[in-house]
């Protein structure tokens, strides 16, 4: 039976494992219909070049417009989607929709931006993933370089030989590759260069306590200089304050993404940001 429709229902903590299991099943059943019912939407969060203050990319972030519970973020359903395998179909939809959006913006004459799409572990293991990506790009007539596929550091490091081969195949298509949540996994630095990823995304946990936390400052500085020497770009995630922006700028970070520039917004709002000259902020010199 339905267990009420309060917000945050998925996160509700109870010792009653039975109730929690039932709740997961309910979410799963609802997720199963959500794709067909057209309840998923993508929000887009700008990535801003620190030198020019211009938007150089946007990350597509999945949202579920739940009929009773309102707009849900991925943390409220992505685990269930992954465990049930539903993430494969959902991930396909995300890729399709992000590319469709990129094509719509192009057709509206907006300046081109890279669109980041997150790939889940299970999606990454689908044998037809690379063909699927190639097919979508072709159908929308998109230059591959504008699609930026994000895979987490921990996912990449899980099975290095296999992921290296996969990333190579994607690289051969011409798409951009980013290592997401960098610093939270256990990277083999020797492999980093061979991964064909152009970008490291510094995890928000290292940015959160900047500029005060000396350890985090040292870590971000190290990642930024390491990326530079490997010829990789760096995006700092979760930048919320001007002080964080200023510190990262001083350390030579290329790009930032965070509430300080903009929260993730619906496609229409994102188009307005892109149209307004792509400038979110005055650059800090
Ligand atoms: P992520 O890929 O690391 O995405 C960045 C997350 O940080 C987003 O959370 C974003 O809203 C949040 N964020 C950005 N700037 C700030 C900030 O300044 N402060 C704070 N507190 N948060 C900030 P979101 O949208 O809730 O997504 C969470 C995670 O869910 C993503 O982390 C990603 O791992 C996953 N996800 C999102 N969309 C998809 C998708 O389409 N497919 C898959 N497989 N996973 C997705
Ligand atoms: Mg991401
Ligand atoms: Mg991340
Ligand atoms: Mg994350």
TrEMBL record:
<feature type="domain" description="EAL">
    <location>
        <begin position="24"/>
        <end position="278"/>
    </location>
</feature>
<protein>
    <submittedName>
        <fullName>EAL domain-containing protein</fullName>
    </submittedName>
</protein>
């Amino acid at each position: 039976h339905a267990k009420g429709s309060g917000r945050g229902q998925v996160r509700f903590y109870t010792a009653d494992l039975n109730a929690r299991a039932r709740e997961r099943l309910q979410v799963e059943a609802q997720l199963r219909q959500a794709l067909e019912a057209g309840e998923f939407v993508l929000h887009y969060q700008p990535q801003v070049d620190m030198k020019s203050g211009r938007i150089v990319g946007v990350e597509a972030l999945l949202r579920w417009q739940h009929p009773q519970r309102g707009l849900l973020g991925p943390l409220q359903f992505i685990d269930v989607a992954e465990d049930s395998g539903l993430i494969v179909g959902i991930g396909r939809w995300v890729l399709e929709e992000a590319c469709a959006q990129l094509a719509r913006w192009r057709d509206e004459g907006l300046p081109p931006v890279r669109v980041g799409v997150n790939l889940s572990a299970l999606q990454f293991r689908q044998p037809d993933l690379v063909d699927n990506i190639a097919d979508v790009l072709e159908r929308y007539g998109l230059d591959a370089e504008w699609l930026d596929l994000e895979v987490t550091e921990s996912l990449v490091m899980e099975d290095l030989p296999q992921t290296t081969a996969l990333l190579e195949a994607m690289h051969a298509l011409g798409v951009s590759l980013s290592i997401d949540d960098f610093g939270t996994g256990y990277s083999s630095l020797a492999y980093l260069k061979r991964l064909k990823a152009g970008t490291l995304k510094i995890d928000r946990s290292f940015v959160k306590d900047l500029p005060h936390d000396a350890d985090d400052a040292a870590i971000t500085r190290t990642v930024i200089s390491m990326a530079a020497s490997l010829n990789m770009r760096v995006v700092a995630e979760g930048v919320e304050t001007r002080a964080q922006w200023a510190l990262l700028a001083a350390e030579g970070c290329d790009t930032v993404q965070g509430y300080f520039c903009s929260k993730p917004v619906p496609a229409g709002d994102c188009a307005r940001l892109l149209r307004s000259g792509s400038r979110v902020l005055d650059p800090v010199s």
